[in-house]
Amino acid sequence: MDPVIVVGAGPVGLALALALARHEVPTIVLDEGSGLCPEGPRSLVLGADTAAFLTRIGYPRAVSDSALWDSFAVWRRRQEVLRIDLTDSPTYHLPQHRLQRGLRDALTGTPLIRLVPLNRVVELEQDRDGVSLRTTGTQDGSTTWWRGSHLVGCDGARSTVRKLLKIRFPGRPAVDRNAIATVRVDLPFDGARLHREPPWRGDREASARPLPDGVWRLDWRLPPGRPAATETVDPHATWPGIVTGDTLLTRVTSTLTGWCGELPRFELLAAADHTAQQRLAARFRSGRCFLAGDAAHLHGALGMQNLADGLRDADNLAWRLALAWHLHSGGPQPGGSLLDGYEAERRGAVGARLRAVDQSMPLLRPLRGWQQTRRSLLVGGFRKHAPLLADGQLGTGRFGGAPAYPAAPSGVPARVPVQRGARGTTSLSELLPATAPGVLVPDLPVLADDGTPDHLHARLGTTFLLLLLVAPGTAVWSSEHWLGAGLMPRLAEVAAALPVPAEVLVTEDYPGAGPHTVLLIRPDGHLVGTTQGAVAEDLLALADRARGGPATLGPAPDPAEQPSPQQVDSPS
C-alpha cells in the first residue's frame, strides 16, 4: 500500500501524521516551508479532549508546556460582571510554537513518518487506486512526483490542495480584527481577563491571558478598516527604550497602566495582527482527497479556537483513513459511508459553531451612535450575555466545547435547541446524556483485560474499537477472579470475532449506564452505542455502524470525483 500524503507541516498536519502512525499507517508530510517554528504570539486553549489527543499521539508535555488558568473574569468599565472559577475544570493555555515543536519532536522518533520540507504542490490527480502529486523544490526548482493512497490538505487558509480540487471556500472575510502581543510582565491578578469598554481611552475591548514563564498574551479588538497596529513593531525591543511601533506601544502602555495603576516594567516579546474570518469549505472530501484545519474552515471571532477544531479534524479523520488503508488490499472494504462520515460530522460541527457566532454577534458587539449610548445604560443586559464571551475564550459551550456527532438517518448531525446557562451556551455534547450515540465519553478509571489500571482516554487509538463493560465491584476483586467470571469470557470471544480489532475494558461505573452494560467506543472517543450484555449480533451491528456499514468485497470504490491535473503558480 502507498502511504497517506499530508500536505502542510503545521500543527494539524503533524498531528494527523502522528495519529496515523499510531494506527501503523505510513505518511509523507510535504511542506512548502523549512519546518522551523519561530516564537510568536499565537496560542491555543486546550480542552480536555484536545489535551488527551495530543498526549496519546506522542506529545505528553502538552499540559506541562501550558499555563493553567484558575479563573476567568469579564469586566465592563470599572466593574467585574462575571467570574468563573476553573478549579474543577482545568483550562490550559499553550503557545502555538511550543505545540508545533512538541509535535515535531514526537515525529522525529516515528519511522512511519517522512517529513519533506521546501516542496510546493503544483499538480494533483487521482484515480481508482490512489493519488499522484507533483511538487517543485522552493530552492532548486526540482520536480518530484509522489504517490499515495489518500491525500489530506492541511496547508492553511490559502490551501493549494483546496484550489486544485476546485472546492469553494465561501464565508465572511473580516468578522473581527485584533492586535496581539506577548508580554513578559507581572500583572496584579490571576487567571484570564476580558475587559469590555475599559476606562482608559482608545480601546473597545482588551484581554489578558496567562502563558507559561510569566508571559501574558494581550489582545485588543480593532475598529474595522484601520491601519495595522503592529506594522512597525520591533518584536525584540524591551521597555524602557522601545521607540518603534508607536500605535502598539500606546496600546500596551495604556492597557498595563490601566490594570496596574502605574506602568510596570515589561518586555515585549512578539506581536501580530489577526483578522478573524468565517469560512467553511463546500466539501471536506473529494474522492481520495480531504481537507482539514484552516484549509477546511476558518473561525476566530469572539475568541473561538479554530486550531482546536483542526486537531479534532485530525482525530476524526485519522482512524477512518487507517481503517480504510488496512482493509484496502484484496480484503473486505469498510462501508461506503466510513470516509463520508468525516465530512458529515466535522463540517456539521464547525457549521454549528459558525451559526452560533452569527446568532450571538448582535448581542455581544456594541452598537453605534445613539444606540450605543442607550445600550450602555443597560448594564443588566450586558451581564446577562457576558457568559457568552467566556465560551470562545475558554473553549466551552457552542463556541468551543467538544462536539457530539448524533446522526439522523440521512447522516447529517441532528440539531438540538439552544440552551444557556451561567457559563454561556450549552454545547450539544453537554445536552445529551453520556450514553447517547455520538457523545464524547468521559475519562474514567478502567481496567484492561489483564487487570492493568488505566484511564479511558489513554486507551483511545490503541485499537479501532473499545468495548467497555460496566461491572460494579470489579476493583475489589483480583483480575484472576473476574477475567473468567460473568460476561468477560463471552465478551472476549465476541470482541475477537468482530470485523475490526477491538479491546475489552472494564469500569466500576459509567454515568447513566447500569451493570452489565457494554459500550462500543470509537478511536476518537465518541460513543457508537450501547448494548445490554455481550450479545454478538448487537455488537456486530454497532461495529458495522462504526465502520460505515457492512463490509463489501473487491477493490476500493471509485473516487467521488477525479479532478484533471492542474497547475498553480502561487498558493495565495
TrEMBL record:
Positions with biased composition (Polar residues): 563-572
Residue ranges of the region described as Disordered: 546-572
Single annotated GO MF: oxidoreductase activity, acting on paired donors, with incorporation or reduction of molecular oxygen, NAD(P)H as one donor, and incorporation of one atom of oxygen
InterPro entries linked: FAD-bd, FAD/NAD-bd_sf, RIFMO-like
Pfam families for this protein: FAD_binding_3
Domain spans labelled FAD-binding: 3-350
Keywords tagged on the record: FAD, Flavoprotein, Monooxygenase, Oxidoreductase
Cofactor: FAD
Record-given protein name: Monooxygenase
Classification lineage: Bacteria, Bacillati, Actinomycetota, Actinomycetes, Kitasatosporales
